[in-house]
Design brief:
alpha/beta, Phosphopantetheine adenylyltransferase, five-stranded parallel beta sheet, 5 strands, coenzyme a biosynthesis, 44% helix, cytoplasm, nucleotidyltransferase, Cyt_trans-like
Length: 162
């Protein structure tokens, strides 16, 4: 068995920034689980199953990526798939403080699982799912921010809400 990592997120929806981190993580680890958080505190636009399907669609050409979801503690999920690492993307210095808190807690919960931070490509440093949803809601151009299948899914969501 090779090195296994988990790349968690809400992915509501997945963006080119997320994809950048996933592709680069998949080059480093033998198996990469992209896992959708099922966070009851958030009110996502897409259901967990819809997010999973979108991620599967845009990562289908990356053979060592598996897509899943989880509820609960990330370190418990990581342990269940024999992962030795968690991959987190950083866009800017402002992300670091929050990520450091999460990483420190994960380390307390399971010190055998390492966290690796990957800085996103500069062209995506401003990008978030929230920004994409806001632009899409008002029919703004998002083709440079998300894959085509995600763009279509967003348009369908917002047309259905009108």
């Amino acid at each position: 068995m090779g090195a296994i990592a988990v790349c968690p997120g809400s992915f509501d929806p997945i963006t080119y920034g997320h994809l950048d981190i996933i592709k680069r993580g998949a080059k480093v680890f033998d198996q990469l689980y992209v896992v959708v958080l099922n966070n009851s505190a958030k009110h996502p636009l897409f259901s967990v199953n819809e997010r999973i399907e979108l991620i599967k669609e845009v990562t289908k050409d990356i053979p060592n990526v598996k897509v899943d979801s989880f509820q609960g503690l990330l370190v418990d999920y990581a342990k269940s798939v024999n992962a030795s690492a968690i991959i987190r993307g950083l866009r800017a210095v402002s992300d670091f403080e929050y990520e450091m808190q999460i990483t420190s807690m994960n380390r307390v919960l399971n010190d055998e699982i390492e966290t690796f931070f990957i800085m996103t490509n500069n062209q995506y440093s401003f990008l978030s799912s929230s920004i994409v949803k806001e632009v899409a809601k008002y029919n703004g151009k998002i083709s440079e921010l998300v894959p085509y299948s995600v763009e279509i899914a967003l348009k369908e969501k917002f047309e259905g809400k009108r």
